Structure of Guanine deaminase:
Amino acid sequence: MNYVEHALELAVENVKEGGHPFGAVLVQGDKVIAEGVNQLHHRFDVTAHAELEVIRKAQESLQTQDLSDCTMYASGEPCPMCLTAMYFAGIKTVYYSQSIHEAEEAGLGMAKTVYMDLAKPSEQRKINMIHTPHESTNEDPMELYKQQNESNTHSE
Ligand SMILES: [Zn+2]
């Protein structure tokens, strides 16, 4: 099976049902683990992209967050959000057909916009990121995590 072609077929079906033109298939070896399409026309959820739908389904069905032995096939070039989820899941390869430039021409330019924004120094990006140092009087979640992690290591 040509998985990219299949992802494109899923995307076509999704457009015919009123959705965005994105489909994805996650494959482990020669087995399809999950299929998905963009769900923005069904849910108030900006994370309902095809690739994230597929990652959620795969992690639930395989009962793991580690998808490093899986390959992503997407109809469109992944946006930064989905690409980042692939980093966290350990996915090493993604095949795609339609570029973020083609998406932009269809009126779906956010992926390109975010890629360009992320390439800028943080102080020049569209989202204001304001560092607020931790108050030493409060319990420090990072320190707490480090302590628990150390004690876990010792108990092994
Ligand atoms: Zn995405």
Helices lie at 3-16, 50-62, 80-89, 100-105, 110-118, 141-155. The chain has one domain: 3-131. The domain at 3-131 is CATH 3.40.140.10 (Cytidine Deaminase; domain 2).
